[in-house]
Amino acid sequence: MNNKTIFISVAAFIGVIFIAAVGVYKSQQPSTVASEQLPALERIGAPSKGGKQAKVTIVEFFDPACGTCSQFYPLINNLVKKYQGKVNVVMRYAPLHKGSDNVVKMLEAAHLQGEFWPALELLFANQQRWVEHHVSNPTRALAGIKTLNVDHDQLDTDWQSSNIAKIIAQDIKDGQTLKVRATPQFFVNGKPLVVFGYEELVYLVEEAVAEAY
């Protein structure tokens, strides 16, 4: 068997493996969440960005103390930019780390002042300053958020308010309904990302865009 024959055989074998892998991946992807669970996906007023008329929505349940959430953040931004006007992302709170329940309240208070995204980027960029051994330090997180252009007194009033407590409680309840047990957890047009990974998320988004447009 000459080198050319060997090369063709190997290439064919790799092609078969790839097709099989794609088939397995597709078989592991469930249909959209149950109809009775759909209302739990999105909450009116939740932080979002991307095209207002986008037909593809990425819902992410996240914890600002989550290192993987921080790593995925620029990747999600890239997807929104790549499919400009076609894809938007909606952020939902899932404070699974100790102490994060107060930090997400602070993020929501920043959201009320139009500073959610700067606050989130700041917290992600400085996780090592306010997260130690997977435990959040709300005092340090708040100090960081207050370096932004926000009304400090209003921020303090809002994050400790019952209204924001209800918002966070709703996100936690919705996360439980959708069986969110780790962060980040993604849903694309109602379809959960079962096999976790960036390439898998990209595939799910590409599939949704192809179907929607």
From TrEMBL:
GO MF term (any one): oxidoreductase activity
Keyword Transmembrane helix: yes
PROSITE patterns: THIOREDOXIN_2
Gene3D superfamilies: Glutaredoxin (3.40.30.10)
Swiss-Prot/TrEMBL keywords: Disulfide bond, Membrane, Oxidoreductase, Redox-active center, Signal, Transmembrane, Transmembrane helix
Domain Thioredoxin: from-to ranges: 32-210
Family: Belongs to the thioredoxin family. DsbA subfamily.
Protein name, as recorded: DsbA-like thioredoxin domain protein
Originating organism: Colwellia psychrerythraea (strain 34H / ATCC BAA-681) (Vibrio psychroerythus)
